[in-house]
Amino acid sequence: xxxxxxxxSIRIIDGVNKEASSKYDYSKEDILRLITDNDxxxxxxxFTDILGRLKGMSITRSEIEQVLEEGQGFDGSSIEGFVxxxxxxxxxxxxxxxFRIFPWAVGGEKVGLLFCDIETPDGRPYEGDxxxxxxxxxxxxxxxxxxxxxxxxxxxxxxxNSKEPRIIDNGGYFDYATVDxxxxxxxxxxxxxxxxxxxxxxxxxxxxxxxxxxxxxxxxALRMADYAMIYRLVVKELxxxxxxxxxxxxxxxxxxxxxxxxxxxxxxxxxxxxFFASDDSYHLSDTARSYIAGILKYVPEFLLxxxxxxxxxxRLVGGYEAPVYISWGRRNRSSxxxxxxxxxxxxxxxxxxxxxxxxACNPYLAFAAMISAGMAGIEEGLQLPEPIENNIFDMPEQExxxxxxxxxxxxxxxxxxxxxxSELMRDxxxxxxxxxxxxxxxxxxxxYRTQVTGxxxxxxxxxx
Length: 464
Known about the structure:
The chain is α+β, with helices and mostly antiparallel strands. The chain has helices at residues 18-22, 28-37, 61-70, 130-143, 181-195, 221-241, 286-306, 312-315, 363-379, 397-402, 412-420, 423-449, 454-460, and strands spanning 42-48, 54-60, 72-75, 89-94, 100-101, 111-119, 147-159, 200-205, 211-216, 219-220, 245-247, 261-269, 272-273, 325-326, 328-329, 337-338, 352-354, 406-407. The chain has two domains: 18-125, Glutamine synthetase, N-terminal domain (Ubiquitin-like (UB roll)); 135-455, 2-Layer Sandwich (Creatine Kinase, Chain A, domain 2).
């Protein structure tokens, strides 16, 4: 494809990130060469706050060599979950392996990007950096000779604007129409991700009108968290260029399915998938079974991370394919954890799918929490209960109770309470992020609970 920059459209350049898609051990010299060869004028330095919002700054070509060597200083006092004013000096140190070139012009200029790790002025990792949390978890896995692979399915909506959720199509699950604006925009977005060196597995229309899904091919967890951040930006940027608004809000339309981020995950030792076992009816190893048991045990404690907004709990209700009950199964899509069917000769594809997260989470913290819960299950030698293969939504309450099927926290305040008591999450996140997240979410809940909603006015005002 060719390239042009205008106010109304983006055309994608293929090939600018071919080297990046196959190489993850860049040196400073490699990056400087790529910047020169591709005539890059600006480089964006990216990181996230604790809520998963993308933050960053742009530097020019003349500054990049020094920044690659020493990092870029910035004031962290206004970043959510970062430092106090009297401790505001921080450094953004680029992770050289994350270098990418935008496959479209920004303001008429070619632009590169680098994710950064946040450090204190004396060079120590900053405890409030979500990416450092993720790196700590993956480093612990590496010490055990393991690596975690993630494959998220991020759903989102296209709307006419950001003021109200007016749909732009009436399609349903897997509907495909080449003349449909949403279909063309989704395809264009998948092409842009591929041009950025981010492999796309598939894309399709989801269940609700105007709802889309683009699935990324599984990667090691830290890399996938970076990709998820790029994914959300690309979806939104291309939507703006087409005059529509893309939203990752978990439940934007009453009476329709919300948007989830089902996360497929597995553990590898070298080239071996340690979740696979040939002699098990589900082809799950003891390691995989204990990992799932850890997820089931600790999900009430980490739900605040994977589903962090008031609106997240409007999605986690019965009747809309989102999980409500803590259970696992193979064919059962009402389960919290699903084990996709094994295909002969595809041992490396053995994985589990966690269905509760939504795409508005912080992927660094969410992936770190999932992995840590699973690993706790392995370390504790937890036994996996029997699977539930029938629809739990149709199951009588007494049967659910007798089978020990518990519910997820059903509101933000209940999720905060569970999270606040979790020693595992305190250990995973560190005191700084753990305490800051609790404080932030209590403020959000208090603002929500004191609102007078349209529902209350419509329901009560006419007769009270």
